[in-house]
Specification:
The complex is a heterotrimer of chains A (100), B (479) and C (477).
Chain A: H1 7-16, H2 23-39, E1 64-65, H3 75-80, E2 85-86, E3 89-92
Antiparallel strand pairs in A: 2-3
Chain B: H1 7-16, H2 21-39, E1 42-45, H3 47-62, E2 74-78, H4 105-112, E3 116-121, H5 155-162, E4 168-173, H6 179-185, E5 188-191, E6 211-216, H7 219-229, H8 248-251, E7 259-263, H9 272-287, E8 291-295, H10 303-318, H11 336-347, H12 350-363, H13 369-389, E9 395-399, H14 415-419, H15 426-431, E10 435-442, E11 448-454, H16 460-474
Parallel strand pairs in B: 2-3, 2-4, 7-8, 7-9
Antiparallel strand pairs in B: 1-3, 4-6, 5-6, 5-10, 9-11, 10-11
Helix pairs in contact in B: 2-3, 5-6, 10-12, 10-13
Chain C: E1 6-7, E2 10-21, H1 46-49, E3 58-59, H2 60-72, E4 76-77, E5 83-86, E6 96-99, E7 106-112, E8 118-128, E9 132-135, E10 148-151, E11 158-164, H3 171-187, E12 200-209, E13 219-224, H4 227-246, E14 254-259, E15 264-270, E16 280-281, H5 292-301, H6 306-317, H7 324-331, H8 335-343, H9 348-358, H10 370-381, H11 387-400, H12 405-411, H13 419-432, H14 434-441, H15 447-458, H16 465-476
Parallel strand pairs in C: 13-14
Antiparallel strand pairs in C: 1-2, 2-11, 2-12, 4-7, 5-6, 5-16, 7-8, 8-11, 9-10, 12-13, 14-15
Helix pairs in contact in C: 3-4, 6-7, 6-8, 7-9, 8-9, 8-10, 10-11, 13-15, 14-15, 15-16
The chains are: A mainly alpha (100), B alpha/beta (479), C alpha+beta (477).
């Protein structure tokens, strides 16, 4: 399938997933992910060239709704559940170093 | 449990006025008071809301109203089902204290049918696990032997029914999370056809695999609860638009003339005591008039790999929303990116992180085709193999779990060993077909064994006919 | 083909990504209102906020508007699927955007610019908008701020992203592309397409190369808030890249931010650790297979597009389709009115001039009945009113919303001069300026102006210039 997963690859994945891992966690994750991917190499034996990917179990199409307003949520109730809110808005720390 | 504690029996009594919902509730709350500290099936017992609800139902019955097919039936909800104003934690620190502003469709349907919710049940964090040991709030214990796990991830829901805390409960099944704990706890557990039950309000683990289904003590009760919760929901785009089939005729149909498949190339791994009960199930069905047919499903064994690439991939995306911005846990940090990293490191447990990492990797640039893309093709192959088999048989029988309930800590050191618990249940999630676990006697140490009945999509009537026959052949409550 | 952009032997290659908000009542995947300018966080629901357990359901009208766009851009409208684009940003509630990836709704179209250039349209796909963040403290920019506030009213608003092929070779073409696209979007009712309100947003992919060479490294320019800025930003960016290459450096692939104040682009972020969006099929939505009948019903309900309307108006008025008057009047949606004036017996040519000048602020539906303007233009053609008088009368009619042009002209004393009075004035002018008359008779076309001017002056503007010219020609024989 591919070469065994490396520590830099694990660090990149943790970064993509926004998971801050400790040194120990990175070491363990590198080993565990490598072991799992070894197990998952069993499907390399299959010839799948002509097989269509299956993304959903039920083949439905064209499920759509009418363009009609539905009730909205109460802002106060929603903001009460927010970690930090100011002036009717959700508040976050400064946005730096983010890709967007 | 006595049959009087079953869903149909309670509802009949409450609807006729011969039993009060309040009295039924107190019997269940009494058992909770007695054993919950030991079993730990719940993350939250909603006893006062339940008492108010039961009183309202009794008043309605007294006023001549019919509260519905679940009138006064105490039910428990897996704590990944949204309940308006009632904490919904997914057994995660991430959602501790979060109160959804809306009800899941299934919760609304149970309510409309007259059910009384007694509490939210414990699970492996975000439904990831097979033992309920991954709960951030401590494990649930198997009521049959509290030194052993109840299975998972819906371990709390299975244990609640097995311990008589509720007459029925709902769980979610992404790779076996209803059927395996049902087997280990000796109750009936159903994973319906994908799309038969609305997923609206089910906190997503892997959206193309998740289905909600019932736990009950009998096959007939499972049919009653499933009939209430199933059916089209315009709020779920993957909901099957046709009405759900009527299961009542199936319960007495028997299996005469049915062709039951035995998968000759089923992956090895089932313990001998479990395998012996499955053999006995074939014998019982044959004795009841079914024809046993050998079929091959060559791709069955690849299900584990396909599942453990697809489910984590979807999960890595579904669980990205836990970012500390709008709800749930936030760990303070000087900037938003650091806040994300710290919040997610603190809020998620080890197994959730492991699957997020695996899924992120399987989708990432350069690996998509080798892992996620390939897994989707294996999924198609598995579905094709099952479809071919269903050309020759009406239903299939396998073990639900490779073993009876195992001891705490048995499989926690090796993630892959835990994943193997799902070997026999995973394919139905990949195909979307229905499957259920029925208690069928006992195995090692007198612990319950569950036999799995599988059927093609929307084949629930056949599946329930077979399950009801198995139940008759061992006797209700014999598991 | 417009003016070709060349700088120190380099040409520019530009592709545009235009996001437009669709004019639906509700959001793309939920029933919250799609409305600009409401109190923050009032148009929210579980789907908009990405709450646990929420599920998207596709808005049929959004699909229909997107198909309208596809058809107007001559795209193939095809079976399509949705995909998740995964990235973390606080205004993106689920930390993924539901978009379309390998199977977009509309593919392979084209847009003809008024100058005849055809720009390819690679795709026009549906996706959801993000919320809005406001940066506290500092300068309102991200850096140095005390944090940010997030409003999710815009999150989930339906967008169509229209991706052009890199067929644009000058700032002028880029401006024309956006203007023409905007006209089309407004004409088909898909979007109000207001760049200043953000309902139309343009990003430009700019690279430079020597003619005949392969494509250079491109930079994506964001934060362009007007058609005018777009031209400036592209011009600046292409020159910047040429200067880099000329200085022996290479262009780095990156996203750059246009700063309206200093007229420059600045690095926003490098693409070195290339975005890894981990696109995969959205499992909560099913494919859309627009059937032929649906597509045809949308196509047959499409209004005439701006290019065709310009041709039609130009034909009616005897003008060029890309003349300023025709372009402006069609852009404002007043072409039907001009044609109505013509149908009511008026002069289309005169109506075009009047509508362009007098109805500048009146929008698509002038309140003055077309028949009234027709009467006015008929009076002009008959010589009963001069152009100047007609303008005055029209201003009064527009202010009142109606009015009889003959009565207004009479009230103002705009009497048409009778022929004998005009003849006397013409005779007087010839007598007063025999030199001009001699030159005019010798065929000098400029000489006529002096004579006409004299008549106009003597009549205090009452004479009709065209009638005077005709009379002079008649005298010369």
């Amino acid at each position: 399938m591919s070469d065994r997963i490396t520590r830099p690859a694990v660090e990149k994945v943790a970064r993509l997933a926004r998971l801050s891992l400790t040194e120990d966690e990175i070491v363990i994750a590198t080993r565990e992910l490598g072991d799992m991917l070894d197990h998952f190499a069993d499907i390399d034996a299959l010839d799948l060239d002509d097989v269509e990917p299956m993304t959903q179990p039920v083949p439905l199409v064209n499920v759509m709704r009418d363009d009609v307003e539905a009730p909205t949520l109460d802002r106060d109730e929603v903001l009460a559940a927010a970690p930090v809110a100011t002036d009717g808005q959700f508040r976050v720390p400064p946005i730096i170093g983010l890709d967007a | 449990m006595s049959p009087a504690d079953g869903v149909d029996s309670i509802a009949a009594g409450v609807r006729s006025g011969s039993r009060s919902a309040a009295a039924v509730l107190e019997e269940h709350l009494g058992r909770i008071a007695e054993r919950e500290a030991e079993v730990h099936a719940f993350t939250l017992v909603t006893d006062s809301a339940a008492r108010e609800r039961a009183a309202v139902l009794d008043e309605r019955v007294a006023a001549g109203e019919d509260p519905g097919p679940l009138a006064g039936v105490p039910v428990a909800l897996k704590d990944n089902l949204c309940t308006r104003g009632v904490p919904t934690t997914c057994s995660s620190r991430m959602l501790e204290g979060w109160r959804p502003p809306y009800d899941a469709t299934v919760v609304a349907r149970l309510h409309d049918a007259g059910a009384v919710v007694v509490g939210k049940t414990n699970l492996d964090e975000f439904a990831m696990g097979s033992s309920t040991e991954n709960s951030a709030f401590g494990p649930t214990r198997n009521p049959h032997d509290t030194s052993r796990v109840p299975g998972g991830s819906s371990g709390g829901s299975a244990a609640a029914v097995a311990a008589g805390f509720a007459a029925a409960s709902l769980g979610s099944d992404t790779g076996g999370s209803i059927r395996q704990p049902a087997a280990l706890c000796g109750v009936v557990g159903v994973k319906p056809t994908y799309g038969a039950v609305s997923r609206l309000g089910l906190v997503a683990f892997a959206s193309s695999l998740d289905q909600i289904g019932p736990f009950t003590t009998s096959v007939a009760d499972a049919a009653t609860v499933l009939t209430v919760i199933a059916g089209p929901d315009p709020s779920d785009s993957t909901s099957i638009p046709e009405p759900f089939p009527d299961l009542r005729p199936s319960l007495e149909r028997g299996v005469a003339g049915l062709r039951i498949g035995r998968i000759s190339d089923l992956p090895a791994g089932a313990d001998p005591d479990v395998a012996a009960r499955v053999d006995a199930a074939f014998d019982a069905l044959a004795a009841a008039g079914a024809t046993i047919v050998d079929v091959e499903i060559p791709a069955f064994g690849y299900g584990l790999t396909a599942y453990y690439l697809i489910a984590p991939a979807e999960a890595s995306s579904n669980l990205a929303r836990y970012d500390g911005v709008r709800f749930g846990l936030r760990v303070d940090a000087p900037d938003t990116d650091a806040m994300y990293m710290a919040t997610r490191a603190e809020g998620f447990g080890a197994e959730v992180k492991r699957r997020i990492m695996l899924g992120t990797y399987a989708l990432s640039a350069g690996y998509y085709d080798a892992y996620y893309g390939k897994a989707l093709k294996v999924r198609r192959r598995i579905a094709a193999d099952f479809a071919a088999a269903y050309g020759r048989v009406d239903a299939l029988i396998t073990p639900a779990s490779p073993s009876v309930a195992f001891a705490f800590g048995d499989k926690t050191s090796d993630p892959f060993a835990m994943y193997l618990c799902d070997t026999y249940t995973i394919p139905s999630n990949l195909t979307g077909d229905p499957a259920m676990s029925v208690p069928f006697g006992t195995g090692a140490d007198g612990l319950p064994v569950g036999v799995q009945v599988l059927a093609p999509a929307l084949g629930e009537p056949t599946m329930f006919a077979v399950a009801a026959e198995l139940e008759r052949s061992v006797g209700v409550g014999d598991g | 083909m417009g003016e070709r952009w060349m700088h120190e032997g380099f040409e520019m290659v530009v592709g545009l990504e235009v996001h437009v908000e669709l004019a639906t009542t509700t959001k793309l995947f939920s029933g919250s209102p799609n409305r600009f300018g409401d109190e923050p966080n009032t148009n929210i629901d579980p789907v908009t906020l990405g709450l646990p357990g929420a599920l998207p359901v596709l808005n049929r009208h959004a699909v229909e508007l997107a198909i309208r766009i596809g058809l107007a851009l001559d795209c193939t409208v095809q079976a399509c699927t949705f995909a998740r684009k995964n990235y973390f940003y606080p205004d993106m509630p689920k930390a993924y955007q539901i978009s379309q990836y390998d199977r977009p709704l509309n593919a392979d179209g084209r847009l003809a610019l008024p100058d005849g250039t055809v720009v390819g349209v690679e795709r026009a796909h549906l996706e959801e908008d993000t919320g809005k963040s406001t940066h506290l403290g500092g300068s309102g920019r991200i850096h140095g701020s005390e944090g940010s506030l997030i409003d999710f009213n815009r999150a989930g608003v339906p967008l169509v992203e229209i991706v052009s092929r890199p067929d644009i070779t000058s700032p002028e073409q880029a401006r024309m592309y956006v203007s023409e696209l905007r006209s089309i979007l407004v004409a088909i009712g898909a979007s109000d397409a207001r760049m200043e309100e953000g309902s139309m947003r343009v990003d430009a992919n700019v690279s430079v190369r020597r003619p005949g060479e392969p494509l250079g490294t491109r930079c994506e320019i964001k934060n362009v808030n007007s058609v005018r800025s777009l031209g400036r930003a592209i011009d600046y960016e292409a020159r910047r890249q040429v200067a880099l290459i000329a200085g022996g450096e290479s262009v780095r692939q990156e996203t750059r931010h246009w700063d309206e104040n200093d007229g420059r682009t600045h690095t926003l972020r490098s693409k070195e650790d290339a975005d890894d969006y981990r696109y995969f099929p959205e499992p909560d939505l099913v494919p859309v297979h627009p059937d032929a009948a649906w597509i045809e019903s949308i196509r047959s309900a499409l209004p005439m597009l701006p290019a065709a309307r310009r041709s039609r108006l130009a034909d009616a008025c005897g003008q060029d389709p890309d003349s300023e008057a025709v372009t402006t009047v069609v852009e404002r949606g007043q072409d039907e009115y001009v044609l109505a004036v013509s149908a009511a017996g008026g002069s289309a040519e005169r109506a075009l001039v009047h509508v362009k000048e007098a109805f500048a602020e009146a929008g698509a539906a002038p309140t003055l009945p077309a028949a009234r303007l027709a009467e006015l233009t008929a009076m002009e053609l008959a010589g009963a009113l001069t152009a100047t008088q007609a303008k005055t009368v029209l201003a009064e009619m527009v202010a009142a919303g109606d009015g009889d042009p003959a009565a207004i002209a009479a009230a103002r004393g705009f009497e048409a001069m009778d022929t004998s009075a005009l003849d006397a004035l013409v005779d007087g002018a010839i007598a007063a300026d025999p030199d001009a008359w001699a030159k005019f008779c010798a065929g000098d076309p400029k000489a006529v102006g002096a004579l006409v001017g004299r008549v106009m002056k003597e009549s205090r503007g009452q004479a009709d210039g065209r009638a005077v010219t005709a009379a002079l020609h008649a005298r010369r024989g």
